[in-house]
Amino acid sequence: xxxxxxxxxxxxxxxxxxxxxxxxxxxxxxxxxxxxxxxxxxxxxxxxxxxxxxxxxxxxxxxxxxxxxxxxxxxxxxxxxxxxxxxxxxxxxxxxxxxxxxxxxxxxxxxxxxxxxxxxxxxxxxxxxxxxxxxxxxxxxxxxxxxxxxxxxxxxxxxxxxxxxxxxxxxxxxxxxxxxxxxxxxxxxxxxxxxxxxxxxxxxxxxxxxxxxxxxxxxxxxxxxxxxxxxxxxxxxxxxxxxxxxxxxxxxxxxxxxxxxxxxxxxxxxxxxxxxxxxxxxxxxxxxxxxxxxxxxxxxxxxxxxxxxxxxxxxxxxxxxxxxxxxxxxxxxxxxxxxxxxxxxxxxxxxxxxxxxxxxxxx
Length: 363
What we know:
Layout: E1 2-6, H1 11-22, E2 26-31, H2 38-47, E3 53-57, E4 72-75, H3 82-87, H4 89-96, H5 98-110, E5 113-119, H6 146-166, E6 170-175, E7 178-179, H7 190-200, E8 204-207, E9 213-214, E10 217-218, H8 219-230, E11 237-240, E12 246-247, H9 248-258, E13 265-268, H10 283-289, H11 297-313, E14 341-344, H12 350-362
Parallel strand pairs: 1-2, 1-4, 2-3, 4-5, 5-6, 6-11, 7-10, 8-13
Antiparallel strand pairs: 3-14, 9-12
């Protein structure tokens, strides 16, 4: 199959790209490296030397055409952690609006199926627990997290409109907390933050009293769910995540134990609109996709600890993202995007060289 993957330099996107290449698909990746890692792209090229892989360092918001035939368009292009979407609020909204429209138009023109990576954040601070796909959510439309919550809610509405009006084959995945190797050290989400702090012997920062709950799905399991949904005939949103839940404080102690760390707990003020509970109902995924997570928390944390420990030992800087925002000054009318660079796999320059130029463009 011929597949366009937007956001392939990101955490989930790079794992999904690797799986697609392992399966023999022809893959084109578009990413502007606003939060993605050039190292992820380099690893895809290095580990899949014989694969049919094209990489474009380009703003998906400016992607107006795609000349090659396509069977599927996968939209994973968006800042996804609170650290990132609070740093890039306008770009996050653009990813949910403009980028979604651009990619849907490409999918429609190519008669390709379209997969939207949505989020459990569409449920906001839920009043229903666990959260089913039929729940409409409890979201503050003007709160600090709204730039991400509402971007994804709009993206779902746009994708659904294309399905109804144009007959586009749309698949919507509502992704719950996911973790695993390859996350940025400064990602800001619970698992990489706690592990990095524990490995450095720093205090583990827990917001509030830590009683808020989350579920944690290992990235390999999530990728399996995304692909099962992509090639299925299932219409409407589908929750993908781990059906069990843990308090944030439990996770902090769990990480300390499994890293043999001397770290202590440091409680900080709870951010505004931080969800109190978060756990998916995955009955729809089980019934219609035959999917559920297989990796235990112990196995997944062990894999993630080994990865982060190796990268810390190698001296990887905390800030592992590259590139510039879609709109450098936050003004939606000022398109200060990275100039388009098309990277062909195993090209003379290579991913690392282009990423370096993008970094210098950032200043």
